[in-house]
């Protein structure tokens, strides 16, 4: 399969509104429903968000989004550094567990590097129970840093890739 990544805009609204990263009939998982609803209704409407669409032919099979942010490091003597906030990586349910998520993450990190080589930190939030998200991020060194309510704040360094 060859993934075709592109910048997404409101012209992609119909495809995004039909996107599903949840298996039908699975028990309610609010943090996954939150991701799906966000992709369907919100992600294309957030100002200053970089949104990428990944298609296989005409089919939208994955989405990622990120924005410019800042991180304070280290925790005991914090100073502010420019960072990217990785807002979402989502793969259509039938295509999950097939290497697509890792390909999407790699492409997204590479776009971040191209936009701004000096912005080297990546921050992401993952629900404490979202093993898929935590496992995917760990593949690229984005790992749990501090808990925040029911989420991990995770941090990675683009120079370590
Ligand atoms: C998280 C997500 C994007 C992963 O996509 P994917 O295409 O299934 O991931 P890949 O097949 O590329 O797997 C890469 C790694 O992720 C981890 N992973 C993926 N799915 C997993 C699962 N169900 N359980 C545990 N680890 C998982 C593994 O470490 C895996 O590596 P491995 O295959 O060597 O074990 C996908 O599960 C998804 O869209 N989930 C719903 C939306 C979401 O929760 N997004 C993250 C928060 S914004």
3D architecture notes:
There is one protein chain. The protein is an alpha+beta fold and 161 residues long. It has one domain: Aminopeptidase (3-Layer(aba) Sandwich). Helix content is 25%, strand content 37%. It is built from four helices and seven strands, in the order E-H-H-E-E-E-H-E-H-E-E. It has helices at residues 13-17, 30-41, 100-115, 131-138, and strands at residues 4-7, 50-56, 59-73, 79-91, 121-127, 143-148, 151-157. A seven-stranded mixed β-sheet has the order 1-2-3-4-5-7-6, with helices on both faces. Strand 6 and strand 7 form a beta hairpin. It is globular. 27% of the residues are buried. Residues 21, 32, 35, 88-91, 96-102, 126, 130-133, 135-136, 139 line the site of coenzyme A.
Topology:
Blueprint: E1 4-7, H1 13-17, H2 30-41, E2 50-56, E3 59-73, E4 79-91, H3 100-115, E5 121-127, H4 131-138, E6 143-148, E7 151-157
Parallel strand pairs: 4-5
Antiparallel strand pairs: 1-2, 2-3, 3-4, 5-7, 6-7
This protein binds coenzyme A (COA).
Strand content bin:
35-45%
The major β-sheet equals:
7 strands, mixed
Q: How many whole angstroms does the radius of gyration measure?
A: 15 Å
CATH A-level architecture: 3-Layer(aba) Sandwich
Order of helices and strands: EHHEEEHEHEE
Strand order of the largest sheet: 1-2-3-4-5-7-6
In this entry the ligands are:
coenzyme A
What is the name of the CATH superfamily?
Gcn5-related N-acetyltransferase (GNAT)
Kindly identify the CATH topology. Answer: Aminopeptidase
* Number of β-strand runs: 7
CATH class: Alpha Beta
Average pLDDT metric: 95
Helix/strand/pairing class, anyone? alpha+beta
The geometry reads as globular
Residue stretches low in confidence (pLDDT < 50, at least 5 long) are none
Oligomerization category of the chains in this entry:
single chain
Helical percent range?
A: 25-40%
Provide the domain count.
1
């Amino acid at each position: 399969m060859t993934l075709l990544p592109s910048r997404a805009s409101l012209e992609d609204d119909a495809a995004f509104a039909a996107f599903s990263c949840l298996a039908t009939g699975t028990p309610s998982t609010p943090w996954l429903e939150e991701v799906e609803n966000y992709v369907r209704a919100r992600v294309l409407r957030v100002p200053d968000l970089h949104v990428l669409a990944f298609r296989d032919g005409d089919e939208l099979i994955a989405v990622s989004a990120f924005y410019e942010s800042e991180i304070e490091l280290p925790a005991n003597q914090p100073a502010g550094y420019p960072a990217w906030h990785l807002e979402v990586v989502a793969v259509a349910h039938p295509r999950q567990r097939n290497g697509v998520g890792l390909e999407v993450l790699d492409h997204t990190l590479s776009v971040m590097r191209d936009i701004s080589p000096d912005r080297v930190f990546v921050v992401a939030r993952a629900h404490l129970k979202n093993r898929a998200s935590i496992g995917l991020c760990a593949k690229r060194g984005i790992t749990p840093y501090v808990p925040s309510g029911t989420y991990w704040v995770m941090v990675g360094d683009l120079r370590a890739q």
